[in-house]
Amino acid sequence: MNKDKKFLTSEECEGLADIFKSLSSSVRVHILCTLSNGEKSAGEIAKEVNASFANTSQNLKDLYNLGLLKKRRSGQNVYYSLASDDVIELLKLIYKIRYRTPVK
After folding, report:
1. Distance between CA 26 and CA 83 in Å, rounded?
2. At what angle do helices 26-35 and 85-99 cross, to 10 degrees?
3. Is residue 28 a part of any domain in this protein?
4. Phi and psi (nearest 5°) for 38?
5. Distance CA 20, CA 29 (A)
6. CATH number of the domain to which 22 belongs
7. What pairing do the DSSP bridges indicate for beta strands 77-82 and 40-41?
8. Residue 72 within any structural domain of the chain
9. From first to last of its 104 residues, what are the pLDDT tens digits of the chain?
10. Which element (helix H / strand E) includes 40?
C-alpha cells in the first residue's frame, strides 16, 4: 500500500462510523440476524425481536437508509430482507473478532 494514500477518506470513515453506530443497538443487530433467514414483514420482525412495532419500524427505517436492508410493499404490509449476503458476512466477522471463534 502506498504510504501517501489514505486507506479511506474522511467522508468514507464517517459513512462507516454511521453503520457501526447503527450496529451498537442490540435490537438492530437482532433484526439483521432475524433477516439472515430470509424476508419478513415488519410485524413478524417486531414479534421476533420482542420490540414494539413503532420501535421496530424506526429501526428498520434506519437500517434501510444505511443500505443494509431492502424492502418491498405488498398491500398494506412492508417486507424487509438483507440488502446482500455481505451483511451476514459482516456480522460473522464481528462475531469472530469479539468471541475469537467463528459462528457455530
Report:
1. 19
2. 130
3. yes
4. 120, 175
5. 11
6. 1.10.10.10
7. antiparallel
8. yes
9. 456 677 899 999 999 999 999 999 999 999 999 999 999 999 999 999 999 999 999 999 999 999 999 999 999 999 999 999 999 999 999 999 999 999 88
10. strand 40-41
* Block residue for cell numbers 467463528: 102
Q: How buried is residue 45: exposed, middle or buried, by Cβ count under 10 Å (0-12/13-18/19+)?
A: buried
Domain ranges, residue 25: 11-99
Residues shown for the chain: 104
CA 86, CA 19: separation in Å to the nearest integer? 13
Distance from C-alpha of 22 to C-alpha of 91, rounded to nearest angstrom: 13
Those residues with Cβ within 8 angstroms of residue 12's Cβ, 6 or more apart along the chain or in another chain: none
